[in-house]
Amino acid sequence: MIIKKVTIENYMCYYDINQFEFANGLNIILGENGEGKTKFFEALDWLFKGGNYNLELIASAKKLDEVAVGETFVVRVAMEVEQYEEKRYLARSFTVTKDDEFECSTSISYFEGIEENKKGEREQVDAERLLKQVFPNEIRKYSLFKGESELNVFDNADALINLVNLFSESRSYEKYAVRSKSLHVLAEEAVATASKRNTSNQNKYNRIQKELKEKKQHLTNFSKLYESANVQLNKLDGEIQNAGMFVDNAEALLTVNNRIKKIQNDIATQLSSIHERYTTYLFDDSWILASFEPVFEKYKHKVTELNNKRRSLQREHDIEEGRKQGARENIINLLNDSLPLNLNVPNKEVMEELIKDEHCKVCDTPAPKGSHQYEFMKKRLKAYLESQNPVKVEDVEQCFKNDYISGLVTQLNLHNDKLKDLKGIEQKIKDLFEYNQKRKITVEDLQHKIDTEKEERSKILANSIDSEERLGQVLKNYNGWQEDRIGVNKRMDSYQVKIDVLTKEIEELEKRKDAIDLESANSFLIKSRDIIRDIELIFEQTKEIKFDEFLKLLQTKANSYFKKVNKGAFTGNIVFVKHKISDSKIKIDVELYEGDRRFYNPNQSLATSMHISVLFAISNLAEENRQEGFPLIFDAPTSSFGSSKTKEFLNIISSTSNQIILLLKDFIGKDEQTENLFIKPEFKNVKRQKALWVKLERPFDANNLRTLNSNVIAL
Predict the structure, then answer these.
(1) What rounded mean pLDDT belongs to the chain?
(2) Of 3.10.20.30, 3.10.450.50, 3.40.50.300, 3.40.50.150, which CATH number belongs to 2-135+632-714?
(3) Are 422 and 382 in contact (CB under 8 A)?
């Protein structure tokens, strides 16, 4: 779309009918402050946005002064555009009636649209629909800019979303990502409902869900704290860099700062490797049992003594019962008056292995089939198996009705197996304390190095600033910011640790919940949920990839324009830094980098050219994606450039394929004697397709709006 003509009639300082004709490419409207340049921009804004509030204030005071009481005139802003080789007309107007010398009334504004085909046939159409067709609102957000302060479109939180929706392939996946997330929620609810039908799992499931909700909320809170600290860190880095600009020997200062930063990173690494979770070690890693062996030996002695006593009593009881019943003669002969072992020692599996191999592996002697040893093992196994059969209490009088001592023996065996590991705890404690102490000594040494480097930095600052008072203030701020930076870094490290821990805990809880689901829910529901999970992940990851590709493309295009706009001067590189504000919201900061180092607070001229380059890149994307260009309209965007840079800037952008309309106060001179305005000769060397000059008709009364009339002069 190309704006061919703008007509302004009786709008503020534009008395009667005034026409602005434009071409494709660069169009320049020159005008001194207060001569009508900005009113042109505001007239266009009113044409696009409309509004019926205080219409009498935008009517030409000169026209109102000329008409008689009771007479009516029109206030109108119209635009003729060319789109796909066909003409379109948009106009917004209202009538003004003079009621008395100082009062007037207005009608409501009327918005009209006309389409003209290639044959010259005209048809009146809905103006709002036509405006959306020729100059969509989502495009206009990146096309009209009033002053330098509005150029950074990413200051608006919704700007990035609009851009993505306009030009990024990421938008194609958004609806699928949203739908799959919705389906995932429904699937999880279905599985949860099925799992809760199992009453034994319901309480466990509810506890896990409650804990998951709490931990996810904590994770969100710590993520916000981390991002907030990161913003604070960037601000501090900017202050530090700005303070560095006050010293002459910036290179030496930068070298020292880099050394300090490296040492600080080394300290952070050493501190992170110190393991002082002693409470955890004490219980989770059983450090509390470091001196357990003497206790265990006493326990072992008492249990062994008690067990021997029990076995002796049991033997006497068995002999007595054998004599009474004649049922235990074999056992008596077998024991030969020796104190018997427990029937489960060795256990059943070991006895079967010994019999199978015909070898006693306890005393390492052969026990061939038929031998006394072999028969002993068989009888021993048989006796054990018979002991496992239930025996009625009334049939045999028992020596011990309960088996508590066997339980103590079992515990003895368990502790005996662990004793080897427990013996190593003291060495582990010693090794860890030595390791931590070495790290602490290293940190102390590094801290001494930092103090030395800070002294060196103070010398550099002292030798570079001419005023003692100024030196004191800079040093105070500089060192204070450096200390604050260390504190913020520590907080960020702490937040990151908590984020990592919470993330891991959430993963474990999810696994526990999934385990309950697998146990309780229908397999079809589980499989369906898992498939939907995978689909959601695919769409989210693809959307993220496409989004990053779009940002990279936009960044590449912006840097291409940036190099052209600042040809022969310092530029650095434009970098789009992505910040995740929430799970669903992302913010982009447009920043300038010198290599890997961020350039904080660039001067206004550099910042302006950076933001204009981004806008050119967006305009280029619009042309590529929609197969159509749209105009860029700027009101005083280069006021910080200076005449020389402005001239270079205009010559560079004059070759752009898009239509650009620039409203500038540059190249206007004033005769000191007559105070008449004139166009400076150097403007002849500025490349452009069209140039216009708006200036107030002379003479006029600066205190009387009724005398103001801006003329439009083609250059």
Answers:
(1) 79
(2) 3.40.50.300
(3) no
